[in-house]
Amino acid sequence: MLGKLDPQRDFFDELLFRRMLPAEHPLLDIDRTVDFSFVEAELADRYSPDTGRPSYPPEQLFRVLFLQIWANLSDVQVCRQLRYNVLYRYFCRLGWEDEVPDDTTLVRFRQRLGEERAARLLERLVEQAREKGCLRGRWAVLDATAIRAHAAARTRVQVLREGRRRLWEAVREARPEAAAALQALAEPVADGEHEDQARLVQAERERTEALLEALAARGADAAPRVRRVREQVRRVLEDEGAGSLVDAEARWGHQRKDRPFFGYKAHVVTDETGFVLAARVTPGQAADVEQAQALVERVQAQGMRPRRVAADKAYDALALRQALAEQGIRPYIPRRTEARRLERRGFAYDARRKRWVCPAGKASIGRTPHRRGGYLVYFSERDCRGCAQAASCLSRTQTRKVIYWHPGVEEVRPRGLKRALRVRKAVERVFGEGKQWHGMGRSRYCGRARTAVQVLLTCMVIDAKKMARRLLAGGKGSPRLRVRGAPGAAA
Asked: Torsions phi, psi of 263, nearest 5?
């Protein structure tokens, strides 16, 4: 049954809190300026209205999860802190006679919250920030960052071997007599029996499938632990990209060409001041540009109308530029196309005459359509044959210079890119704060959906901190708040 948060405090609790709380603290600033009452309204349908014992109030449990991210604590650590930390008890609305929720309660509340509701809570916080004048919203700044998985990466062979070993150990615990007959199928395939890695992987797959069939035939998969491990093994067997038995949804991705990581990506959109407007989590191999349009649409669905988008070269795609331009949004995105490399080598585009000019001052003479879109631009054989730079400009098989060029990139490329790149640093500061202070650099849990809840909670913590600073500092459009009766406030 849904538990309600009592806004009134016990007299002795209030007296104790006033005596022991500090005059100033960031958590108290957040408590004074941010209203979390929307949590109960968003989660009321997750509870029975009149059946069962009253639950912990949803807002109270949300505050515990908020505190956990804010202080970068585990479930066990935050519950332990709530037993004796006066400030934390005050923030989470726990009186001295109230029971502290245990770590299992927090796990179940996160499951009840889920990714969809966590995203909705972030939207409600953004809506509150708009009403209080904390947002500007003229820019939408896009970027993505790596989140390492809460599991060690394995090769395909290692994953299959580990899965069979764990499955056999579970069977041995539940059915020792069946485990003896299945032990041969749990052993790894000998590496030297196969010519290459592909054939070794295929042999491991066949042995894993044979073990699963033998389990079903003997009826040895009835125990709960055996069923759980069997489903893990079946999932990694069917998914060729799985790199871990523990977290089958994590994938290899690259922050740069020489910096691979195993885990997930957090795709975030902020305004020009670094206030997080929306976020989503994908496996590590997902391309940044594929998430851009959905993030912009989510911001627009909240009633905001950004007129400019700033992003890095990972978002350089003509389709995205054109889609933003059709909505009246200017895309400020650096190029990573052939045109960029040509400019560094001394080639220049003459927009008035719509032609390219080489470093020797010779203009292109024609172009033909390319299968990827855009054109192949040709220079004169006569000009190239007599050019002093031909040896460094042409390949051994070329008799004239030919370049690939897509004019659409130039058509939707507004001026002011340098300023936009300075604005883009706002989202980098968000990632830096989230990873340094709130543990966003590594997933606390296994699975994409659980990692998404962690990222969304982290975004809410960062936004709440910004709201408190701006409102209490009396920023533009945000008068300084004075809360009567709050700890540290003037009477």
From this structure: 160, -130
* Three-state secondary structure string covering 115-161: HHHHHHHHHHHHHHHHHCCCCCCCEEEEEEEEEECCCCCCCHHHHHH
383 HSE (CA, 13 A, CB side): 15
Residues present in the chain in total: 491
Among 29-33, 296-300, 328-332, 406-410, the least confident range: 406-410
Query: Which region holds residue 140: left if phi is over 0, alpha if psi is between -120 and 50, else beta?
Result: beta
Q: The tokens 């960062």 sit on which residue? A: 462
| Separation CA 212–CA 167 (nearest Å) | 9
Neighbours of 267 (CB within 10 A): 22
Instruction: Identify residue 400 by its one-letter amino acid code.
Output: R
- Please tell me whether residue 78 adopts helix, strand or coil conformation: helix
* Angstrom distance (rounded) from CA 394 to CA 378: 12
Tokens representing 46?
């997750």
Q: Decide if 182 contacts 220 (C-beta within 8 A).
A: yes
Whether 266 contacts 439, CB under 8 Å: no
Closest CA to 89 of 76, 103, 99: 99
Determine contact, residues 431/401, Cβ cutoff 8 Å: no
Q: Which of 488, 360, 440 is closest to 146 using CA atoms? A: 440
Q: In degrees, to the nearest 5, what angle opens at C-alpha 206 toward C-alphas 204 and 209?
A: 110
pLDDT digits (tens, 9 = 90+) for 179-230: 888 999 999 998 877 878 889 999 999 999 999 999 888 888 788 899 999 9
The DSSP H or E segment spanning 332 is strand 330-332
What tokens were used for 14? 């209030």
Spatial CB neighbours of 230, under 8 Å, sequence gap ≥ 6: 167, 212, 215, 221
Query: What does the alpha-carbon distance between residue 142 and residue 462 come to, in Å, rounded to a whole number?
Result: 16
**Rounded CA separation 247/269 (Å):** 26
d(CA 319, CA 342) in angstroms, rounded, equals 22
Distance CA 171, CA 154 (A): 23
424-446 in b/e burial notation, b at 16+ Cβ within 10 A? bebbeebbebbbebbbbbebbbb
- Interatomic CA distance for residues 228 and 208, integer angstroms: 16
List all residues 6 or more positions away from 7 whose beta carbon is below 8 Å from its beta carbon: none
The pTM of the full predicted model, rounded to 2 decimals, is 0.83
Q: Coil, helix or strand for 384?
A: helix
Q: Would you call 163 exposed, middle or buried from its count of C-beta atoms within 10 A (0-12, 13-18, 19+)?
A: buried
CA angle 220, 226, 229 (to 5 degrees): 135
